[in-house]
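Forwarding the complex inputs:
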Amino acid sequence: MIPADLRLRLLAAVLLVLAASQLAHLGPALAALALALILALAARPDRALWRRLRHVEGFVALLLLTLPFAVPGAPLLTLGPLSASLEGLARAALLAAKVTTAALVLLALLGTVEPIRLGAALHALRLPEPLVRLFVLTLRYLGLIGDEARRLREAMRARAFRARTDRHTWRSFGNLIGMLLVRALDRARRVEEAMRLRGFSGRFPHAALAAPTARDWTGFALLTGLAAAALLLDRL
Amino acid sequence: MAHIPDGILAAPVLIGGAVLAAGGVALALRQIDDRAIIRTAILSATFFAGSLISVPVGPSSVHLLLAGLMGVMLGSGAFLSVLVGLVLQALLFGFGGLTTLGVNTVNIALPGVVLGLALGPTIRRTTRPGLRAGLAALVGGLSVLGTGGLVAACLALSSPAYAPVASVLLATYLPLALVEAAITAAVVGFLARVEPDALRPAA
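Prediction (whole assembly, two chains):
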């Protein structure tokens, strides 16, 4: 069901999340949640991917706790001056369903995509070329700079540094980030020279993508059709 | 929690955020040349790595936004750096969202860019380390508070029922603002001693 072609997959992800975020009734939102769960299970993400949902649920928990008290309506539970309303609880449930649906869609459609392959797809979708180049280059150097940061942290640990809530910690982290930035600028100069040496003249080659197959189009049509159906059901 | 996930904000807020973010990104792209793209990309990767450091605050811990520092070092290029960073966070960690990319980019980048433009020139020019540290701390701390204010405003504009969440969120930004102020001052001090050119957007 999920298109293998990255362009269609990205487009589908945007359209699905957009549709999910505009649902206004609990019924369609729960239906969308069920579909998203099926989609996520079909994508077979590993455990690390599932763990991502926890970040999202922090926000949801905050809303679930406060919304019942903030929306006026029939009182359900009274805690001193605060009273939770049925309407508020329904509102919180709707939001939780929508937020979780969107997170599951992202998990299913983009969770297993290697970011470096996205460059070509973003380019094919006509995003401004300098922006795509920036994305690809950032991703390329993230691994290197992450390693450098790890080495510097290890060196700090070897000198018995322990992060606490004090000025020494903040100054040390400031020096760490400053050092990373100085090395990054050095690297930027070297990379720029190397690119110039190889005759870079402002045209960055992005891999060409094969045309989407009929299967990809079917999957895309199915997914966007379901999203449109959910929206229609919601508005009726 | 500077990244608002999908599914919470109202459509007008999402559209407004997307339009503003597109404007900021277009402005930044107009000012950037081929060399600056490489510099911006490698600095973006560094800011991203820096924001992964978890800094303890009492029993809890915070992650830096570094938007003020980006504003000083990249100027309007901070819009690009933040946008790319948010896309990567969504892809690598599932943080934030797709429909909220525009809103989140504006919320994080705008205060940094404005403060970087306002205080950056004095930070670069001054020879007094104390004044430089004070201004850098101001850029770091105020940009975090600005982000907190914008996030709260986005929530409050979407629905009056979000007001309690907005004020709880705003309170969680205070310790981050303090830490960010101290660390931004330290980073700017380090760069001024080691490589002052680093503080200039188009060096």
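The radius of gyration of chain B is 16 Å.
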